[in-house]
Amino acid sequence: MPDRSFLEWSLTIQQRMEQVLDGFLPGADIAPQRLHQAMRYAVLGGGKRVRALLAHAAAELSGADAALAERAASAVELIHAYSLVHDDMPCMDDDDLRRGKPSCHKQYDDATALLVGDALQTLAFQLLAEPGLGLAPEQQLQMVQLLAVASGSRGMAGGQAIDLQSVGQALTQTELEYMHIHKTGALIRAAALLGVYSAAVVDPLRVKAVSRYAEAIGLAFQVVDDILDAEADTATLGKTAGKDADSNKPTYVTILGLPRARALAKELHDEAISALQHEGAGATRLRQLAQFITQRSF
Amino acid sequence: MPDRSFLEWSLTIQQRMEQVLDGFLPGADIAPQRLHQAMRYAVLGGGKRVRALLAHAAAELSGADAALAERAASAVELIHAYSLVHDDMPCMDDDDLRRGKPSCHKQYDDATALLVGDALQTLAFQLLAEPGLGLAPEQQLQMVQLLAVASGSRGMAGGQAIDLQSVGQALTQTELEYMHIHKTGALIRAAALLGVYSAAVVDPLRVKAVSRYAEAIGLAFQVVDDILDAEADTATLGKTAGKDADSNKPTYVTILGLPRARALAKELHDEAISALQHEGAGATRLRQLAQFITQRSF
Hints:
2 copies of one chain form a homodimer.
Chain A: H1 4-24, H2 33-43, H3 50-62, H4 66-88, E1 97-98, E2 101-102, H5 104-107, H6 110-129, H7 137-151, H8 156-166, H9 173-197, H10 204-231, H11 234-237, H12 243-246, H13 252-256, H14 258-275, H15 284-295
């Protein structure tokens, strides 16, 4: 069990992120109202905000300003939210539920969901390019670049394309890993690194350590997801469970079996911790997050 | 008729843009291949590249480097291409043809088209955030910001949302204008302004003049589009003509009738020219473009 102070810390950030995202999203009364309502529906009120927690933990390690960490975390959460909205659409995973609520295209309609995803992506880059934040402009540009590379055709969107092609295929563990490194790993790595880049001074050795940490955590996250998906039922997970198995998508559990998948999650956790060995107490939240991600069972 | 030197200039730029975009897009042999092939299919080999021409003409006026003008023009063309791919999808306009070829989702599939649009948008911002271009980083950030605002929920994507809501509605000319200012006008304005911002020195008065010019041209572009759509048939236009009238979408022609729509196009042309009155011979290409856009009949 993660300790009590970690749970308090993450709850505080989750609640704060809700306010911050609320402030960054256009108001529901601003035209076009339906689009803005749907954008807010897709982003607010839910999710574990794992990416925001990672950004904040890495920002704490780096001594970043809270406001800058919140902005970086918001940009990543907006990209994540856009990818979920598009991923749930009928032409992709065709999921009716998301976080226990109707997914965006079910609550609104397909065309609106398409535009919601498009506009959330744009807003993410807009946030990072805002002038006068008190960061060096070249560092802000690096953040835009980092987020773009992580979410584009050679990052997250590319991973989704590989995922599409893999339905019904018998993938090896290496091929599955390659897909997840892109589909979820790239954005998780970007979340942590944007936390580091939110600070006035960026230490290249720290960038390396956090990058290695986040790569391990990103894969662990997916392995645990597959384990949870294999175990859970619709009621507890809040999304249509067993979906991946139904649609013949390869998972760590179908390839490795449950016991070996659990061992792999543990291994990746240890790898993440070892990447932070030269960081001191400032990395406590990152270490706790590694544990939280690999041990979460809710 | 636009003069011969203008036609040569635009042909040169159209051809050069083909090479430049080809270089910016990931190769068709790079994984995920199908996604990269589809991205190239959606961007390369066609279009009048009006936005690229506007960016180049404004860059010439401002004395910008060719390489920077090409990059800015590419970013705008990628945003435009992404919007067309998503706009053609079954849940939006459901168009089977684009530039005389099967639209992206017909040539590939809906899921791939969704990801193509997503990844093209990302690539646009990635291009503008590239380090070491020789522009001041704060100016590059302004370019990212400008493109994001123009294409997001209060720009292009917002205009598309308004368009969705307007099907079957009896719009006034003011409401129609409001929609087009967002749907096409914002990106056309961004194209011209990114041309100005590609130069080492940005003159605020020039930004104002080019902005006013581009706002007029953006609307003119749409008025002419509606006129052409009303006149043309599928064979000459390369897209399913009469579609807007079929689906009961309001157009300038349905609201004003052909003669008054033509007069409006002329009026907007004159407004664009008058916005440039304090610019000298450097604005020749912009003036010619205004004429080209309002008089194009192919």
